Amino acid sequence: MGKLLKILAGFILVIIVIAIAAPLIIDPNDYRDQIQTTVKEKTGRDLKINGDLSLSVFPWIGVAINDVSLSNAKGFKADYFAKIENAKVQVKLLPLISKKVEVSTIVLNGMQLNLAKNKQGITNWDDLSQAKQSEQNTTPDKSESSSSTGLAALAIGGVQINNANIHWDDASSGETQTISNFNLTTDALSLGSPMGVELGFTLKSNKPVMETKLELKGDLVINNKLNKFEFQNMALLVDSSGDPIPNGKISVNINSNIIADLANSGSLSLKPLTISFNETTIKGSALVKNFAKPAINFDLAADTINIDQYLSQTDDGANTSQKKPVAATPAAAALIPVETLRPLDIDGLIKIESAIVSGLKADGVSLKIDAKNGILKTQQEVKTFYNGSYLGKTTIDSRHSTPKITLQEQAKDINIEALLVDLSGQSSLSGTANIKANLTTQGNTIAAFKSTLNGTSNFSFKDGAITGVDVGALMKQAEAVLKGDLSALAEKGTGKTPFTDISGSAKITRGLVNNNDLIIATPLVNITGKGTANLVNEKIDYRLAMQRTKAQSDAEKADVKDIKNTAIPVDISGTFTKPSFKLDIESIVLSSQKEKIEEKKQELKNKLQDKIGDKLGDKFKSFF
Description:
By secondary structure, this protein is an alpha+beta fold. The chain is 21% helix and 48% strand. It has 11 helices and 30 strands. The protein has a 28-stranded mixed beta sheet that branches. It is elongated and about 120 Å long.
């Protein structure tokens, strides 16, 4: 045993002596031309080593290079494909004897990389890939187990990449992208232990015109089997500006613990998760299982969010408070991405303290999403919505080529005027609204939704006014007509009708809305109505019946005696955007003169009977 130890000690001593002497004897710069020639033979590219090469052997086997560049592929305009100011890597000598690899910090400074694609779709690294593939075909395959064992025995002192720049130029699309000031620093890599990571870079693109700055920090843990990665205390900051960004600029902070488990079917967990941007902070957790067929679960809560900041902009990208009509979606455009919905597997909940969407303000918003086997279900609730509340359920069945939709909506005690003003900038209706609807439809375009819409609805409005219709003026016109003054038909009223109550129900069949029980109560007039509204062609066919409840004053009682108990008919026609209101003059006259007409008919009848009776009497007399 003693003799063996002496031999081993001598062997180590020889190695140490060689290691110390090697750098003094061997000058790696003597092999500069040979290295450049070999690269030329293998790749067809010119490798230029302008700086010195240095070599170390003990206690680290290492090499350092300075000012090295590799020429570009033929036909590409950049002067070089890659360029490095300096790089250094070292491996500890003695652990190699026991098949362990200990690498010092890998340092790469000032890398410049020019990536490009020409108009024919050929990249400037295709030739390098072909050369590498040719070498691999002649190299024996190594088993996955040996590769895994080698990585498990690998220890790296860290990585430092400083001031790297990567430029991408795609001549086939005219797109260019540049990553500048790329910096990466890591702690020593030891499998199973946290490794500090700091990453930062700036990305610029021309299509779209955009600039993004990214900073990432955290502790990365990689298990021994290299199939589980945990990013602890991850902090990601993204600052973006440019054409696609709402309002031209946004800053996003993301903090989380991320676990990516590649074993079995794979999973990705973000818990806890915090996302902050503008005035919004979102907290919660998210989980994705089975990467091949993702099952997504999330539970998120936001304090406040203004969706309009990211959707509604003027032509110059600035926000506008002036309400404009929402651009109509083309009638033939597919609205539901059925191919995307069918494979979805989602179970999630989103809660928002305060939200603004399409100009509408809502507090206490919750959205429950359940998607599985081609059926998407949502339950939405707004606890405070324009002095009232809202509940809704939506089901989208995308299992077949034509999606089917079911809607259950209920709005209680809504300030309808304030809602409509925020939605469109104006309102022709005020009051407190209660609306309930159960609807079904199918299709994938607006036109299809309208033509297949079926269901029922109930509505009521209290203590409000209708702008655009003046019931009082219509009544005065009717009174004037009864007096023979047709010129009153040309007069216009105030264009507003106050009411104490409006109620009714509707049945929708294939886009035709049928209402037969409309009741409108106003201080002076009671109104009933029935008719249809066609959602497909947007035409209205409706008839109102107005009847005074009382005269406005004692002086008016005599004037309205003939009309007080008369139902005044008003026909509504035209379209949704251009409705037409018209008094039915013929019906008014016939209704008001009905009693006189009946008296005249009876008088004529009596005269006829008397005349017939006289003639019959004369006939009887002739027989005698």
